[in-house]
Design goal:
With 71 residues, the protein is mostly helical. It contains three helices and no strands. The radius of gyration is 22 Å and the shape is elongated.
């Protein structure tokens, strides 16, 4: 979904972000910056995950050879 809206933006900050992100316009820059914030949060959450269910037995099962499907 896309919503058209008005924002009060610091243009110097937008220009800095545009250079860092390699984007062209303000809309692309804001979208890319938002995507990056979401990506960073997902990575942070993943780094904090304990993966308690990945026991040595579960890992062995995941790593075991599987029969060929297309013979």
């Amino acid at each position: 979904m896309v919503k058209r809206t008005s924002l009060n933006l610091e243009l110097d900050l937008v220009d800095q972000a545009r250079r860092v992100l390699g984007t062209q316009g303000t809309t692309e820059t804001v979208h890319r910056a938002l995507e990056e914030v979401v990506r960073q949060e997902r990575l942070r959450a993943l780094a904090n995950e304990t993966f308690d269910d990945l026991t040595p037995e579960a890992l062995r099962e995941l790593r075991r050879p599987r029969p060929e499907r297309w013979s």
